[in-house]
Amino acid sequence: MNPQADKVIRRTTMVATVVASYFLLTADYGPEPNVLDPIKKAILSAESSVKEFVFGSKGQPQETQMGKLKSDASKENQ
Hints:
Blueprint: H1 3-29, H2 37-55, H3 62-77
């Protein structure tokens, strides 16, 4: 078999095995606390960090951010 095709098949099989294992474990435990909770919390934490980085923090209203941008622009024009 072609070495590149073999590599793709092996990686696809590994990913499919991990995904299937995850779904089987979560189906067994349901919403109850389990071994996967730390992993889930880490993923959610990383997701919220990226969202805060991209969209700004939730603590500042958009009006304040827009006001700062407008005042900064007016200072540059002077």
